[in-house]
Amino acid sequence: MVSGDRIPGVPAMASWLEEIERREAAARERIEELLAWVTELSESLAEQEMVLSRLEITRETRP
Fold first, then answer.
1. Separate counts of helices (H) and strands (E) for the chain
2. 12 contact partners, CB below 8 Å, separation of at least 6
3. How far apart are CA 35 and CA 42, in angstroms?
4. Residue 8 and residue 2 in contact, taking contact as beta carbons nearer than 8 Å
5. What global pTM score does this model have?
6. In Å, how far are 3, 14, 24, 53 from 28, measured between CA atoms?
7. pLDDT tens, the chain, 63 aa long
8. What does the alpha-carbon distance between residue 3 and residue 1 come to, in Å, rounded to a whole number?
């Protein structure tokens, strides 16, 4: 064996797994950010749909 019990030419499994875990954490964080953005956009859309609906009703009820 070589120092550190690594086989020459074979990447360290621990560092590979750490990289996968880092990428998973980053992906989860981005998903949370996007879900928050989608929620915010959905709320804004609902508000604007309500405004439009009220304006349409106002126009229909005005002589």
1. 1, 0
2. 6
3. 10
4. yes
5. 0.64
6. 36, 21, 6, 37
7. 445 566 666 567 778 889 999 999 999 999 999 999 999 999 999 999 999 999 999 999 977
8. 7
